[in-house]
Amino acid sequence: MLTNQVIATPVADQAQKLRLMVRNNRKTARVLAVTSGKGGVGKSNVAANLAICLSAAGKKIVLLDADLGLANLDVLLPVNARSNLAHVISGKKRIQDVMQTGPAQIQVICGASGISKMADLNEFQRQRLIQEMAYLEHLADIIIVDTGAGISPNVLSFCNAADHNLVVTSTEPTSITDAYAMIKTLHHARRDARISLLVNMADNREQAKKLYQRIAAVARKFLDASLYDAGYVLRDEHLVQAVHRRLPVVIAYPRCQAAVCLVALAQKLARARKENSPKSGFFRKVMNWFN
């Protein structure tokens, strides 16, 4: 009996070390937070269409609606939102039960409408959400997080934990001001944050380029921050028609100018290198911002 125990123990130790090695070497997804300083700039449309383009390029994509108050990805995509994050938080569902397959085989998780603040969750609910959502980090190549608009703690928690932030602005003065406020807030929270600016609903390439250069110059001068150029999406009536049809524009009108711009954005992001993610994991770090 003693001999068998002595022999079995090293084997068990080796098996445990092997399990740990496999766990530590598992692929973790790159996380892109799509955000904006104010609502109405087309942020969710960008996130949804970008997810489809990246999936078509061969990436495994999870699209997460992280707007816990006014989630709307299920309106923009032809998915059935019978279950969402609220069911995960309550313990009624597992994360894999609320994932739905959307266009181009993207995996969609609809937001928990009606939960005003992530900070309102108790510790038990937070830990449950972390454990469930950590599953996603090894499921996809890229997790696209469609945040709420503005600089609330809910929004900033996801942005501050992401590998890359895509700030969406329109050409309207209020949107530009709020976009810069978002960039400033993100940079102050994490000076190593990777932030890109996308100009949506631009009239032409020249207008978009000038706007990016203006905001980037201000960020460099007053924040000492580098702002990456994500490009632009041209103003296109096809996008409005696609929303009415509840279809992403890259599917409804794949040859229109807005769709062409979104494909170009996806190609640019697909080539971006993966930043070093924290060992604690993305979703655990999201919750840490409330501690």
What does this entry look like structurally?
The relative contact order is 0.17. The protein has an 8-stranded mixed β-sheet with strand order 3-4-2-5-1-6-7-8, sandwiched between helices. It is 48% helix and 16% strand. It has a single domain (30-286), classed as P-loop containing nucleotide triphosphate hydrolases (Rossmann fold). The longest helix has 23 residues, at 2-24. The protein starts with a helix and ends with a helix. It has 13 helices and 8 strands. It is an alpha/beta fold and 291 residues long.
Q: Write the CATH architecture name.
A: 3-Layer(aba) Sandwich
* Beta-strand segment tally: 8
CATH fold naming: Rossmann fold
Please state the average pLDDT score: 84
Instruction: Kindly report the oligomeric state of this protein.
Output: single chain
In short:
The chain is α/β, with parallel strands linked by helices and about 290 residues long. It has helices at about 1-25, 45-55, 75, 85-90, 95-100, 125-135, 155-160, 175-190, 205-225, 235-245, 250, 255-270, 280-290, and strands at about 30-35, 60-65, 100, 105-110, 140-150, 165-170, 195-200, 225-235.
